[in-house]
TrEMBL record:
A single MF term (Gene Ontology): ATP binding
One GO cellular component term: plasma membrane
Keywords: ATP-binding, Nucleotide-binding
The protein's name: ATPase involved in chromosome partitioning
InterPro entries: Bact_polysacc_biosynth/exp, P-loop_NTPase, Wzc-like_C, YlxH/NBP35
The keyword ATP-binding appears for this protein: yes
Length: 243
């Protein structure tokens, strides 16, 4: 788990990790982890960060004491095995094809309570597999093993996979990357989900430049922040005596 993308694991005190904790708290308001267990992460186009969000959300949910399974449902260009640096010889496609049982391919990770089901070999019919009753039965099986199930999916506006998969999810989080996603892409992606009668939980805005917000956060809560604040007060001059 040495990937630079696993910020919630390698940089637990960072501003970005705290943002994932805020997202986790917001999802708790929707009963994610209780009444809602299966959350699908979907984006309109390429490069918006669904895999990045799924991996780091999985970490922060597990750190909160919940049992989490990340399922890489991108059967065209999977990323979770690369992010976590684990084997992808067998995975989701192997289960849906009937070659493996879920218990044989779900992998435990160094974070307590966190597991991942990688995509496995790329099949010829991803959309058909993801929309099948086999996928539904798999998700029902996973619900018995975990409190939170995160589904990482391919772009909504490019292939039908995510739209057909949304019917098996309890809720969908729409991922939008700043300066990458166009307004048209976001609207079109939402329309796909609405037409599929998906339960849209909200939008996760990815790739925002923290700038001064990040600096302020680190100065108050980062390592040595209290010392910097104390020094600032020590050097402060009384009002009316500034020359």
């Amino acid at each position: 788990m040495n990937s630079h993308e696993l910020i919630a694991y390698s940089q637990p005190r960072s501003f970005i990790t705290e943002s994932f904790r805020v997202l986790r708290a917001n999802l708790h308001f929707f009963e994610v982890g209780n009444a809602l267990k299966v959350v699908m992460l979907a984006a309109g186009g390429f490069g918006e960060g669904t895999s990045f969000l799924a991996a780091n959300m999985g970490i922060v949910f597990a750190q909160a004491g919940q049992r989490v399974i990340i399922v890489d449902c991108d059967l065209r260009k999977p990323q979770q095995h690369l992010i976590f640096n684990i084997d992808n010889q067998f995975g989701l496609s192997s289960v849906l094809a009937g070659f493996k049982e879920p218990e044989e391919v779900i992998k435990a990770l160094p974070v307590a309570g966190l597991k991942v089901l990688t995509a496995g070999p790329l099949p010829e019919n991803p959309a058909e597999l993801l929309g099948s009753q086999k996928m539904n039965r798999l998700i029902l099986n996973l619900k018995e093993k975990a409190d939170v199930i995160l589904l990482d999916t391919p772009p909504l506006n490019v292939v039908a996979d995510a739209a057909v998969l949304s019917k098996w999810a309890d809720g969908v989080l729409l991922v939008v990357r700043a300066r990458v996603a166009s307004c048209n892409s976001v609207v079109k992606g939402k329309e796909f989900l609405v037409n599929a009668k998906a339960n849209i939980l909200g939008v996760a805005l990815n790739g925002v430049r923290a700038g001064e917000i990040s600096e302020t956060y680190n100065s108050y809560f980062g390592k040595g922040g209290a010392v910097h604040k104390a020094r600032a007060k020590k050097n402060e001059k009384p009002p009316g005596k500034v020359k």
